Automatic annotation (TrEMBL):
PROSITE patterns associated with the record: ABC_TRANSPORTER_1 (PS00211), ABC_TRANSPORTER_2 (PS50893)
Residues of the signal peptide: none
Molecular function terms, GO-annotated: ATP binding
Domain of life the protein comes from: Bacteria
Assigned keywords, A-Z: ATP-binding, Nucleotide-binding
Pfam family, one: ABC_tran
InterPro entries for the chain: AAA+_ATPase, ABC_transporter-like_ATP-bd, ABC_transporter-like_CS, P-loop_NTPase
Domain ABC transporter: 5-233
Name the UniProt record assigns to this protein: ABC transporter ATP-binding protein
Length: 241
């Protein structure tokens, strides 16, 4: 099977500021792929390009064999952005219904998916409340539920667990692993947190718009002769400087 995502020689600047430099990434079907790096490294810009929301200056991106941007492929992508794009005057349930209606789902499948997604993020008791009355963490959880609602082949989650308490964070990670292992979903997660990176099949360490190193967590630690991904990041950064 072809890889789900192929990013080739992608370069991007905003004005005169280079943000991504010659990025190459291949993500296989059914892989949980982590993009890890400090604030401003370029992770969000890269995932926005994979989704088709930003255009690269050079290079190409293919998702499920289609060159991005491609409107039809959006049916296959569940995207959770870093800033919540929610309708504040609608309830949580109405937001979920609205986003579910954008996808090819029957009415009964829609109902089932909304119940599943709301339950996963512990929002079922709050579905009838308006989003304007939600806390920051509740809005993050609703955004994650929206990304999952259409049952996409590919999940792209930009810092999905920021502002979420440890217990729920653990259950979300367990569900991501289940979606990968049992349903064969391909998942991209961006994170600042190394313990989340440890759970990924493959990790790419991003800094200053470049990929410093990539591989499985074990491969990375072995090749840098260190015991943690934090140390890999530090060593890889020194090599770049
Ligand atoms: N629309 C834009 N216009 C101008 N500069 C931008 C724009 N979007 C991002 N940038 C700049 O691009 C760089 C990379 O930003 P990006 O959001 O991709 O980083 P990130 O790794 O996702 O960071 P964080 O973890 O804080 O979200 C930053 O210096 C940011 O200021």
């Amino acid at each position: 099977m072809n890889p789900t995502i192929v990013v080739e020689n992608v370069t991007k600047s905003f004005g005169k500021k280079p943000v991504l430099n010659e990025i190459n990434v291949t993500i296989e079907s059914g892989q949980l792929y982590g993009l890890i790096g400090p604030s401003g490294a370029g992770k969000t810009t890269l995932v926005k390009m994979i989704v088709g929301m930003e255009k690269s200056d050079a290079g190409s991106i293919h998702v499920l064999d289609k060159k991005m941007p491609n409107l039809a492929i959006l049916q296959e992508i569940g995207y959770m952005a870093q800033s919540d794009a929610l309708y504040a005057e609608l309830t949580g349930e109405e937001n979920l219904k609205f986003f579910a209606s954008l996808f090819k789902l029957s009415k009964s499948a829609q109902k089932q998916r909304i119940a599943y997604a709301a339950d996963l993020v512990n929002l079922t008791p709050d579905l009838k409340k308006r989003v304007s009355a939600y806390s920051g963490g509740m809005k993050r959880r609703l955004s994650l539920a929206i990304a999952l609602v259409q049952d996409p082949k590919l999940l792209i989650l930009d810092e999905p667990t920021v502002g979420i308490d440890p217990e729920l964070k653990l259950s979300i990670w367990n569900e991501l692993l289940r979606l990968k292992n049992e349903e064969g979903k391909t998942i991209i997660v961006t994170t600042h947190v190394m313990d989340e990176a440890e759970r990924c099949d493959v990790v790419a360490m991003v800094r200053n718009g470049r990929i410093l190193a990539s591989g499985t967590p074990t491969e990375l630690k072995d090749s840098y002769h260190v015991g943690s991904l934090d140390e890999v990041f530090l060593k890889a950064g020194v090599n770049q400087a």
